[in-house]
Amino acid sequence: MIERNLYIKQLLPFIDKPQIKVLTGIRRCGKSTVMKLLKDTLIKSGKSENQIIVANFESFEFSDIDTAKKLYDFVKDKMNGTQKYYLLLDEIQEVKDWEKAVNAFLTDFEADIYLTGSNSHLLSSELATYLAGRYVEFQIFTLSYNEFIDFRKHYLPEKSIAFTDYLRAGGFPVIHTADYQEDTAHKVIYDIYSSVILRDAVQRYNIRDVELLERVVKYAFDNIGKTFSGKNVADYFKNQQRKVDVNTIYNYLNALEVAFILYRVPRYDVRGKEILKTQEKFYLGDVSLLYATMGYRDRLIGGILENIVFLELKRRGYQVFVGKIDTKEIDFIAEKHGEKVYIQVAYKLDSEQTAEREFSVLQLINDNFPKYVITMDEFWKENINGIKHVHIADFLRMENF
After folding, report:
1. pLDDT tens digits, 192-205
2. In this predicted model, what pLDDT tens digit does every residue of 362-373 receive, in sequence order?
3. Are 151 and 173 in contact (CB under 8 A)?
4. What are the φ and ψ backbone dihedral angles of 391, each rounded to 5 degrees?
5. Separation of alpha carbons 18 and 2, rounded Å
6. Paired strand residues for 343
7. I need a labelling partner for 135 at 20 to 30 A (CA). Which of 4, 159, 164, 237 fits?
8. Domains with residue ranges and CATH for the chain
């Protein structure tokens, strides 16, 4: 099992703290593995294995624990004496009214609680009602480029390592534990995608028109890296002789966000210092979802590279915005602890005009925070007025931006 230290380091300061630790992320991104690594960490720190109660509610072993009362009884039965217990409850959303049981654990037992779930509604109004102010969220993502390299060295040490392999395969861990052919890998990812659509979007939201949902997905995927709104999508369908209510489109986009298939990125006006409410961007939970559903598309390479950079920024805990300054767009403004990073992403600076376009917008920003132009150029590494030109693989491997 490969260590995913990024997440264990985030969890360590919260061990034995009173907050419930909630790990969220798209199915098969590695949440269960993080739970196993956490269990190992607890044992290494001196906790007895008898103190650690583990259940994965997607496993047939626990399939009969489907209500809050059954969950409460299961945990109570495992507890003997007054020592502290560590509850590691995986895919908790499979248990009906689980929030009531977890709230009771806080009241009735000496317990340190860790939950995982595959939809962002774990932190919705239901949870807030029962556990207001008593939980902290950790988002788990598919493999970073650094993690991909670790997986490749461990599972396929005879194979060379190149950024293009990561670019073409995406980051779902299962794809990097064996030597999959590209078509086979895409079939595995498509099955994950289908499961996410069915269980975390269609069933959760009682969506009846699954075919329309699939069309919304393909529209979003085909416009990766471009700004659009629900009205744009509705207008597109109207041109296809299909009338769709704008509210329906927004509901479907929201369902895809809840399932972590899409991430919505708001626009930020640098001059006005305000978040704009129109023309957001949407990025995928993993770029392989695009390949599995629509095939690899060279014309989308710019958006695919943006998606990879966006996910890296999110992994590192940044709030991410699309920037607007006058009439120009900044691909990303990333902010954390009052510090900012400004980023432009392009496939290649293959002309003076392209270079001018990417650098000029960053030159309009009058502060001293880091500014990067990220591309796949192998040789052209010139920096201009403090703006650094970096190959995307080098950027992803940087310890600090």
Report:
1. 999 999 888 888 88
2. 999 988 999 999
3. yes
4. -65, 140
5. 29
6. 332, 372
7. 4
8. 5-139 (3.40.50.300), 146-397 (no CATH)
